[in-house]
């Protein structure tokens, strides 16, 4: 899938794993040249040029937990762990940030947000309930009581096109704005392949049996920390049986309807708002229209 970088992908930072495991080397990097991402909770702050705002270690409280993001421009970059993690979907200010930030800044912010959000929500051991401490530069938490080690998680999610006779099946969740439809999506469950997850989710949400599942592209999605696995598939029958507990609606869209919505821009047309450019669904549908 050629074109501009997928949103939240293509981070310019060197994650420098060899430094994470070397406390002495990491300590040497925590100097006046180090940069700390300026966050308002989990939301980014901006400088006068609309780029991510960074400050120095001197501006950070002594009790603040810091996560080592990596090296960029020969400087160590860190992010502070907020007092609280995310409790729901992305907020309007987060959507605004996704549209404002340059691709490299968006990738940096996305990785940092996923990581510090995980820390904020995992201060206690899942094994014994005792407090955990940051380790390996922030890429691990250790329990001082039972010795358990905890690692940041990424949850795999399939997001898929379903095609039937030159039409695409799109659905809308209850939280979507009116007229907004997108590709169906769902978490990969334990013991499933990607292909099995695609088939199961489409069957559960829309009552459609699919075949010929193929991988197209992926996107890190930091709300809170998913890997969106973009696929395409083919349905043999168009008959829908929608699970209304999962979807408000699902319907087949013709190529002409999708093209018209794409041309209409962010506000869409009378029937459909095309997915936003920062969502992989936008890239998947665009690929289908342009191939």
UniProtKB/TrEMBL annotation:
Signal peptide: none annotated. One of its GO terms (biological process) is NADP+ catabolic process. One of its GO terms (molecular function) is metal ion binding. InterPro entries: NAD-cap_RNA_hydrolase_NudC, NADH_PPase-like_N, NudC-like_C, Nudix_hydrolase, NUDIX_hydrolase-like_dom_sf, NUDIX_hydrolase_CS, NUDIX_hydrolase_dom, Znr_NADH_PPase. It catalyses: a 5'-end NAD(+)-phospho-ribonucleoside in mRNA + H2O = a 5'-end phospho-adenosine-phospho-ribonucleoside in mRNA + beta-nicotinamide D-ribonucleotide + 2 H(+). It comes from the Bacteria. Residues 152-276 form the Nudix hydrolase domain. Its EC number is 3.6.1.22. The keyword Iron-sulfur does not apply. The keyword NAD applies. Keywords: Hydrolase, Magnesium, Metal-binding, NAD. It is an enzyme of class 3 (hydrolase). Its cofactor is Zn(2+); Mg(2+). It holds the Pfam family NUDIX-like. One of its GO terms (cellular component) is cytosol. Belongs to the Nudix hydrolase family. NudC subfamily. This is NAD(+) diphosphatase.
């Amino acid at each position: 899938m050629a074109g501009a970088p997928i949103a939240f992908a293509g981070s310019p930072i060197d994650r420098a794993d060899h430094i994470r495991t070397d406390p002495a080397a990491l300590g040497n990097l925590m100097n006046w040249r180090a940069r700390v991402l300026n966050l308002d909770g989990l939301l980014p702050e901006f400088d006068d040029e609309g780029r991510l705002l960074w400050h120095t270690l001197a501006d950070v409280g002594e009790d603040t937990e810091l996560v080592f993001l990596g090296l960029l421009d020969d400087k160590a970059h860190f992010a502070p762990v907020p007092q609280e993690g995310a409790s729901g979907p992305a907020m309007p200010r987060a959507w605004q940030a996704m549209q404002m930030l340059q691709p490299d800044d968006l990738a940096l912010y996305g990785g940092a947000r996923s990581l510090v959000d995980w820390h904020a929500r995992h201060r206690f051991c899942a094994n014994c309930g005792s407090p955990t401490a940051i380790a390996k530069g922030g890429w691990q938490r250790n329990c001082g009581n039972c010795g358990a080690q905890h690692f940041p998680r990424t949850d795999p999610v399939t997001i898929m096109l379903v095609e039937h006779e030159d039409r695409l099946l799109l659905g809308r969740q209850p939280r979507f704005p009116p007229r907004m439809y997108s590709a169906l999506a769902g978490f990969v469950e334990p013991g499933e392949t990607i292909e099995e997850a695609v088939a199961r989710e489409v069957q559960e949400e829309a009552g459609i049996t699919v075949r010929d599942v193929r991988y197209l592209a992926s996107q890190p999605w930091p709300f809170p920390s998913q890997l969106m696995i973009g696929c395409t598939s083919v349905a043999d029958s168009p008959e829908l049986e929608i699970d209304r507990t999962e979807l408000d609606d699902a319907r087949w869209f013709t190529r002409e309807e999708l093209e018209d919505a794409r041309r209409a821009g962010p506000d869409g047309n009378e029937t459909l708002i095309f997915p936003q450019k920062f969502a992989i669904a936008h890239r998947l549908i665009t690929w289908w229209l342009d191939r």
